Each structure stands twice: as C-alpha cells, then as structure tokens.
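Cross-check.
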Amino acid sequence: MTDNRPAATPDGRPVGSRARWAIVLASLAIIAVAVLTVVVLNSDDEPSGTAPAPSATVTQPGPTVTVTATPKPTSSRTSTTSPDHRTFRYQPLWPFTSETAAAAWQQAYRSGGKQPWHLDPAQTALSFTTGFLGFDEIGLVVSKSVRGDEAFVSVGYRADQNPPSVAAVIHLARLGQGDDAPWEVVGTRDSSLTLTQPRYGAVAGSPLTVGGRITGVDEAIRVDVRQASTGQRLGTFCCVPAGGEGQPWSTQVTFQGATDPAVVIVASTGGHYQDVEAFAVTAIRTAD
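Predicted model, tokenized:
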C-alpha cells in the first residue's frame, strides 16, 4: 500500500510545502558539494578534456674531457700555447743554427709576422735550394709529405716538355717549442746520388774526405762546404768524374773559416739538361 501521508518532522508534525522545498534544496547542495569534491580530486591526477601541454626540451652540456696525451693547440700567429716538449733529434743545417736562434725568430713572428715562410716546409725547402745553395734552376716542389714534426719535400725542375724531374728529397724537422716552431733543413733522402761520407753529424775538420755512390752517365760531381750564417762557400772541389749503376765515388776537399756549430756538405751533378740536376747534403760538426 502506498503511504500518502504528508512528510513529518522528527517530532511528528507535518511538513509544509516551503519546508519540503528547503529539504530538497539542502539535499541537492550536499550532492553538488560531493560531486565537486570528486572532480577536484581527480583533476590533481590528470587534466580532463585536453592533452597536456608539451614541455620544453633542455639539453644539458656533456662532460668536459681533458686530453693529456697529444694536445692540439690552435695555430695562431700570437699563440703562446705550446704542445708537449719537442725534442730535436737532428743536426740543424739551415736556416737556423740552434734552437735559440729559432726562438728569436718566433718572437719576431709573433710580434710582427716576420718571414712567415718558416712555417711552410715546402717554402723552406725551396728557399734552401734556390737561395742558400744557389741552384736557381731547381724551382719546383714536385711532392710533399708531412707527418707530425717531420717533412720530406721533393724539389726539382722541368726539362723541355718532360714531366718534372726530382733533383733531391729534402728532409725537414720542426725546431723549437710551440705550434709556431719553424721548419729546419736537416739533410736529404738520397737515391741516385748518395752522400755517405763523412757520417752524418760526425765531428770532422779540413781536409775532409767526401764520398758516396751514384747512378748515371757522364756525371761530374762537385763538392761544396757551406755554413748557414754566411753565403760564401768555405771550400769547393770540382769535379769528380763518375757514372754507372750504384758506383762509388770519393774525393777530398779543404775548407776554412767555419764559425757555425755545424757545416753543410753539398754534392751536386748535372750537365745534361741544366747545370744542376741532382744534389745531396749532409752535415758535420766542426772540430775545435
């Protein structure tokens, strides 16, 4: 049976229309508060209805790596950064007579850019050939190989329309400290004309026995004794007739006026296409 009695208060009195509406409104308010609370709690976990905004990507710099084995300073005229200590293992021939002389040029270069060709092994080899030795006809760089602090530069000439001919392979090494240490001529890598006596870096004086081997036809070998600090020859012998396949040659030359720590011995030959077509050099330390 359906109970149609009007609503009553807790003490049993009937509830009026206005009171009933007040109860209904209060109940709806309680329900709304509950729903709102649930929504707020859920919104803390994940926003509803829209995708989350993209966040900015921040790239952190990687760790700094310090290399101590073989540092590579940036080449600069004014740079004072030096690589690991460089040990010079050869006899200086030209253009400097010592590491002190090379360091003096470095200071002049850093302050005013003096003679930058010292930093180029090919230009140094050509200056040695045409300037110091006076072999004007040998003005080509045929090839160049540089590995670290050493370089081999082939200098030569072109006869008529023929391909370039190599007159000598000049050996150079960097003399001094720093990334702007200059290149120094220290000898030649010989092939058809060799210079094996006196021994490289030996202590010797005048008269001097000079010799080696040669491959060629109708050769005439000239021997000069020179030093880096002066342009004049200290001694000359011309000429030793030679030829054949790897045939020995030898002569004796006297010299005087040596003041540098070392002197340069130069053997040269030519006469087929031009005055000088092949040469070889070595160095000795002068006797006290």
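The two ends are 143 Å apart (CA to CA). Helices lie at 17-43, 99-112, 121-132. Passed to J.P. for a second look.
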